[in-house]
Amino acid sequence: MSTAPTGPTVPAGPTAPAAGPIAPAAPVPPTAPLLGAGVIVPTGDGRVLIGRRTTAGEPPTWSLPGGKVDLGESFERTAARELAEETGIVLPAEEMRVLAVHLDHELGRPRLTAAVLAPPSLAEAVVTEPHACGGWERVPVDALPEPMFYPSALVLGSWLPRLSPRLRAGTHGYPVAR
């Protein structure tokens, strides 16, 4: 006598395991590290793409495109995906370059942000996530508005050291040697 699986199953296929029960995802502890990438999209004429960050529960700031690393992604792939998701600008991950990683503990847990430099682009940026962004602008690097989202300020400082913010307690930067 055979018995049927008692839970949801995963279809079998070339990239899926054989059918069987799916284990429930473990809850993410509130102290779990956050991994992300901030994307510098220069224009080639002294400007950079930034957005008006309007995330619920946070004060408004200015921010680079970027976001959390998905399972199995590199920082370059995360940068390309987040850039496309947030702005509609599609640039190849192969042309992205990690400049540094920054570690801070501002949220009461470790946050590791990769500073990723994209190739120059003047492609139109559209607001695809209106709940999180009030608009995209290309701003001269010598006239960046304030306040800047802290991880974005760290990422910009990795690209142009004169833009480095005053480091807050518990912040560490690690340039990537190539």
General description of the model:
The protein is built from 2 helices and 8 strands, in the order ββββαβββαβ. With about 180 residues, it is an alpha+beta fold. The strands form 2 sheets. A 5-stranded mixed beta sheet has the order 4-1-6-5-8, sandwiched between helices. Strands 3-2-7 form a 3-stranded antiparallel beta sheet. A hairpin with a 6-residue loop joins β5 (about 95-105) and β6. The longest helix is centred in the middle third of the chain and has 13 residues, at about 75-85.
What would the keywords be for this entry?
3-stranded antiparallel sheet, alpha+beta, 5-stranded mixed sheet, globular, 178 residues
Radius of gyration over all CA atoms, rounded: 19 Å
Query: Can you summarize the main beta sheet?
Result: 5 strands, mixed
Mean pLDDT: 88
Instruction: Kindly state the percentage of residues in helix.
Output: 10-25%
Within the largest sheet, what's the order of strands?
Answer: 4-1-6-5-8
The unreliable regions are 1-20
Compact summary:
This protein is 13% helix and 26% strand. With 178 residues, the protein is of the alpha+beta class.
List the helices and strands and how they pair.
Blueprint: E1 34-40, E2 47-53, E3 61-63, E4 66-68, H1 75-87, E5 97-104, E6 111-117, E7 133-140, H2 150-159, E8 172-175
Parallel strand pairs: 1-6
Antiparallel strand pairs: 1-4, 2-3, 2-7, 5-6, 5-8
